[in-house]
Amino acid sequence: MKDIEDKLKEKYDKVEVPDYMFDTARVFKRIEEEKKDSKKKIISIAASIIVILLIVVALIFTMPNILKEDIIVNEKGTTENINGSIVINNKISNYNKKNDIKISLLKINNINDSIIIDNIPYTIVKAQVLKSYLGNLTEEIEVYVPGGIFSIKDIKDNVKYDKIDDISKFKDDDLVKVTYYNEIYIPVAEEGKTYIATLNEVDGKYFVNMNAKYGFKEYNEETNMVTINDYDEQLDINKYLENIK
Questions:
Q1: What is the pLDDT of residue 207?
Q2: Pairing state of beta strands 120-134 and 140-146?
Q3: Full-model pTM
């Protein structure tokens, strides 16, 4: 029995155990590296979450404005929706009785609607009365200005004319900017601009006089100039009033 124990002890003493198995420094180093890797992962995840939150917050604040802009474009029918422009010239005389005339400086605040009345296309605008030269008008009035934005089908079906630009290149549902006047040119009304307007009151509604020199002309208050087709002239309101009365 003693021989067996001696043999086992001899064999045990011959077994070599690697030193690194008792190297605790390596163990702690590996644990420290794992901790660092874990911190890096946590920081990376936290940064990703912050970026996502920032994107979500930005979308929350910007999306309503984007939607609002889309609504404004659709309501106003901006030039992106316009397929071209045409000029309609006519000899129809409407709402030109001298005893119904009002003459004022108007600033266009809003384009409200488009309508065709008695074969004439009109833009209905909300205008601020800056000054009245003839007739007493309230601070804000609704004015019917010839021309505006209309579909080709509306023009074909509802507007009479002596002369019109070629419309065969357009489709029926195309929207076009229509300039409509008799002998005296009338520009299409634009928001924010100031005009001198000669108006006829008909059943409580104000229509641009289509036969007056200053029926509806763009006006520059700083220079006192009126745009007549492709040139400007000084406004002599006293002389104009003498001729219009």
A1: 95
A2: antiparallel
A3: 0.66
